[in-house]
Amino acid sequence: MRQIGWNWLGVVPFFAFALLFLVLPTMNIVIGAFQNPQGEFTLANLAGLASPRIVSSFAISIKISLASALLGCLIGFAMAAAVVMGGVPRWIKGPLMTFSGVASNFAGVPLAFAFIATLGRVGLVTMLLRQWFGINIYAMGFNLLSFWGLTLTYLFFQIPLMILIITPALEGLKREWREAAEVLGASTGQYWRMVALPILFPSLLGTFALLFANSFGAVATAYALTGSSLSIVPIMLFAQIRGDVLQDPHLGYAMAFGMIVVTGLANLAYVVMRARAERWMR
Amino acid sequence: MRRVWSWAALIVGGLYFLLPLIGTIEFSLRMRRGEYSLDAYRSVLSDPNFRATFSYSVAMALLTIVLGVLIVVPTAYWVRLRLPRLRPVIEFITLLPLVIPAIVVVFGYIRLYNTSSVLPLTGTASGTNLLLLCGYATLALPYMYRAVDTGLSTLDVRSLTEAAQSLGAGWVRIIGRLILPNVLGAVMSGAFLSFAIVIGEFTMAALLNRPAFGPYMQLLGANRAYEPAALAVIAFAVTWGCMGLMQLISRLFGTRIRPT
Q: Which of B10, B19, B239 sits opposite A106 (nearest CB)?
């Protein structure tokens, strides 16, 4: 009995730290979401989330996250598949993985600057398109400070993350499966549709959920890119924390709670899907 | 045919990644009219605010690494040695910062540690610095823990501990002189990743009102044209340096640390 008591002591610093700087602050927000200013229990804050302004901010946030996760998955998958089984030289894989490691961590304010310098009104690509091809993307309605601009920017860390996660899964596809399919007379399309994709499906779906959460919680890139012109959830919460723009602190807590719910569900999907994917990866 | 598609995917993807990098570098050189110059870099590097915020963030990053190591190494070691049943719990907690957005955590800090609370950390500059430091340590927690735990898995923790104990070593000595050096590779790769995350972190520093590099970059971006591009190049170089060193070290020591 005494032994158990002493053993617990070794993890006290860790739990104290996690409690003070992770669990309690989060709990505080969650509880605040269910309280009125007098400290009584209420669901009014959650009901307040149904106001048009907040609903539209969640809608656009979810749309951007869906679009950047979907495109990130597709493009990342195509690039990873090209390297793993596409018949390109082997040496490409190393640099691609290294670069993905760097780019998936190159987010935040500098990423916004990079895209302003590239696709902003006087950015390199904008200018070159105009000078070489006479295409003025801004006259055509493109705007970096918009849904597509933000999605395009987020892809810079979404695609590398997809490549990092899906490459091991693609490498886990066994040769024997393909050979067996071919012996049975399957075409390449049939092999993909009936063997490879069903096996990869949990990995794909899980990574999609992870990418979704990844862009949903991103604040810095969006803030540096758009200031407060695009009302996505993190930006609105940022403004709320700074200056109570909703004019109701408890509505702010409810909004933060909504954010946790969305990213929490996405991460849960990732964990569940990962567990399923691992069945095939032995 | 398959090869054509593969090359197409790689070239399109490659262009997408290369163009912003080229665009940023080109833009950062455009400050002087009609010719390329390093004026934007000169302007940034000679800005006293740049130096102040950059050194503030470097100091914070180093302190974060120290705090992270102090929390993670003894815990991961102890759990492996004595409380293996607790491992899933610890692992779950270390992954929480990836689930709960940083903006929500810092929102909680502001509410929990405000000037009228039991622990009014936000009341003083040093208290807020401490709070930010702890916030950064939570951000680094998933990466740090994963790195150290992977490093520990290559050791026979029990035998090492028993050997050290039979030679008369105490706990501090075992962790400091035996375990830490043995997982140094893992700790270093976790440290470089933490450094890359903390150095340009914006949300927590901005909301806690600390003079860090991230908010400085944002402010400069809102007010200047060419300097932000130069900053982006510098930030990318720092990230690249950190990640390059990390990959080098993890290749040397044979550890993988991405928490996926």
A: B239
